[in-house]
Amino acid sequence: MYKAAIDEENYLAVLEPRHAKELLDQLIDSSRENIGQMAYFSHDN
């Protein structure tokens, strides 16, 4: 995987298909409250 350092703590990387599930899971978890407000169902029900 290609990585380009930005500074000591951050880098840019080319995403690959193998990263998709982890990124989607993180996106859903961080947006769960908003998703629940927009959907007719929510994770609390």
Low-pLDDT regions = none
Strand element count? 2
Mean pLDDT comes to 85
Tell me roughly what share of residues is in helical segments: 40-55%
C-alpha termini separation: 41 Å
Give a quick set of tags describing it:
42% helix; 45 residues; 1 helix; elongated; two-stranded antiparallel ribbon; alpha+beta
Question: How would you portray this structure in words?
Answer:
This protein has a domain at 16-45. The protein contains 1 helix and 2 strands, in the order ββα. β1 and β2 form a beta hairpin. The protein has one helix at residues 20-38; strands at residues 3-5, 11-13. The model has no long low-confidence stretch (mean pLDDT 85). A two-stranded antiparallel sheet has the order 1-2. The protein is of the alpha+beta class.
Summarize the structure.
This protein is an alpha+beta fold.
Topology, pairings included?
Elements: E1 3-5, E2 11-13, H1 20-38
Antiparallel strand pairs: 1-2
